[in-house]
Amino acid sequence: MDRLTGAATVSEEAKHVQKQLATDRAALSRLDDDHYDGLVDRATWLRQRARIQDCIVKNQAVIEQTTALLPTAAFDVATVATEWAEHTPAWQNHAARLLLDRVVIHAHPRGMASTTNRRKGETLEGHDARHAELRKEIMAHRVDLIWTR
Question: Is 48 exposed, middle or buried (CB count within 10 Å of its CB: 0-12, 13-18, 19+)?
Answer without folding.
Answer: middle
